[in-house]
Automatic annotation (TrEMBL):
Required for the induction the katG gene for catalase. Involved in the response to hydrogen peroxide. GO terms for cellular component: protein-DNA complex. It comes from Mycobacterium syngnathidarum. Belongs to the LysR transcriptional regulatory family. Keywords: Activator, DNA-binding, Transcription, Transcription regulation. This is Probable hydrogen peroxide-inducible genes activator. The keyword Transcription regulation applies. It holds the Pfam family LysR_substrate. GO terms for molecular function: DNA binding; DNA-binding transcription factor activity. Residues 1-58 form the HTH lysR-type domain. The lineage of its organism: Bacteria, Bacillati, Actinomycetota, Actinomycetes, Mycobacteriales. It comes from the Bacteria. InterPro entries: LysR_HTH_N (IPR000847), LysR_subst-bd (IPR005119), WH-like_DNA-bd_sf (IPR036388), WH_DNA-bd_sf (IPR036390).
Length: 293
C-alpha cells in the first residue's frame, strides 16, 4: 500500500467524486480509478458504493479513512522529526492550545520564544480540550497548552486560574466581594458545551455545591459567554479575566470554593519523542511561564 495512493484515497473519500479528486491531485481519472481498484483489492472489500455514477464512502471506507489519516499524520510527523534532527534550531512545532489562552498567554509565549529561535516554524491549532487531546493522540500536535490534565499524557503545570461568577453589571450579586456558588443555584447559566474542559469543571462545582441550575445557552468560547452575561441572558462560571480583557458589561465575583480554579499546563505524548524544536519550546515554556504577563 503506497503512501501516495493512500493520500489519493483520502482526497477521494473527502470529495466522493473521481473527476474532482483527480483534478485536485493532478492525476488522470484512469490513474486514480486504477489506484482505487488496487487498494480495494488489497483490503479485500469495496470502499465505496457506486450510486448513479457517484461514489459514496461505505462503512469499510470510513474505517480505512480513519486509519489512513492517522497513518499519513504519523508518516508526516516522522519525516518532520528526521528533518529537524539535522538542525535543532529550525523545524516545525505543532502547538495546540485552548481558546482561552489565545488572547494573551500563547501570543506572549511565542513572541518571546521566537526572539530566541527565529527560524522555528509553527503549525498552530486553537480549540477545545477534547479536540486538543485528540490531536495529541493522533500525532497531529507535538505540544498542547490545555486544561484539565489529560490522562495518559506527560504534563507540566504552568499556572493556576481562579474561577469567578460573571453576572450582569446591574445584577443583585454585582456588588459582592465574594460568593458561594450555591447562592446562584436558581440563576440561569450560560456555559460551554459539555465536551469542554471548563464545562466539566463547572459541572463538578455545581455538584459539589448541590445545585443543578438551568443552562440557557451553551457557547463555544468564553468571550461569547461573557457577552451573553452582559446582555442579561444569565450568569456564568469563568476564569478571572485580565483587567484589559474583562467584559465591560459584566461584574466578576470571586467564588468562595477552594476548588474553584483550573490549572493550565503543558502536555505531550508519552509515546513519541518530541522533535528538537518542540522540545526546545517545551523547555522554554516550563522555565519562562511565570515571567509571561
Amino acid at each position: 500500500m503506497h503512501l501516495d495512493e493512500l493520500q489519493w484515497f483520502v482526497v477521494l473519500a473527502e470529495t466522493e467524486h473521481v473527476t474532482d479528486a483527480a483534478a485536485e491531485l493532478g492525476v488522470s481519472q484512469p490513474t486514480l480509478s486504477r489506484a482505487l481498484a488496487r487498494l480495494e483489492e488489497q483490503v479485500g472489500v469495496p470502499l465505496f458504493d457506486r450510486v448513479h455514477r457517484r461514489l459514496r464512502l461505505n462503512a469499510y471506507g470510513h474505517i480505512l479513512l480513519e486509519h489512513a489519516r492517522r497513518g499519513i499524520a504519523e508518516i508526516r510527523s516522522a519525516t518532520e522529526r528526521i528533518a529537524e534532527m539535522r538542525d535543532p534550531d529550525t523545524g516545525m512545532v505543532r502547538l495546540a492550545f485552548l481558546h482561552s489562552q489565545a488572547g494573551w498567554f500563547v501570543p506572549d509565549l511565542l513572541r518571546r520564544f521566537r526572539a530566541e529561535a527565529p527560524l522555528v516554524r509553527f503549525e498552530l491549532f486553537q480549540g477545545a480540550a477534547h479536540q486538543i487531546v485528540e490531536r495529541l493522540a493522533n500525532g497531529e500536535a507535538d505540544l498542547a497548552i490545555t486544561s484539565p490534565r489529560p490522562e495518559g499524557f506527560r504534563w507540566r503545570g504552568l499556572y493556576v486560574e481562579r474561577l469567578c461568577l460573571a453576572v450582569p453589571r446591574e445584577h443583585r450579586f454585582a456588588r459582592r466581594s465574594r460568593i458561594r456558588l450555591a447562592d446562584a443555584g436558581s440563576e440561569p447559566f450560560v456555559a460551554l458545551a459539555p465536551d469542554f474542559g471548563l464545562r466539566q469543571l463547572t459541572d463538578e462545582l455545581w455538584s459539589e455545591a448541590g445545585i443543578a441550575p438551568p443552562v440557557v445557552f451553551e457557547a463555544m468560547e468564553i468571550p461569547t459567554m461573557e457577552g451573553l452575561v452582559a446582555a442579561g441572558f444569565g450568569v456564568a462560571v469563568v476564569p478571572v479575566p485580565r483587567p484589559e480583557r474583562a467584559e465591560s458589561g459584566a461584574a466578576y465575583i470571586p467564588l468562595s470554593e477552594s476548588s474553584a480554579k483550573r490549572q493550565i499546563g503543558l502536555t505531550w505524548s508519552v509515546d513519541r519523542q518530541l522533535p528538537p524544536a518542540a522540545a526546545r519550546l517545551a523547555e522554554y515554556t516550563m522555565h519562562k511561564a511565570h515571567d509571561i504577563d
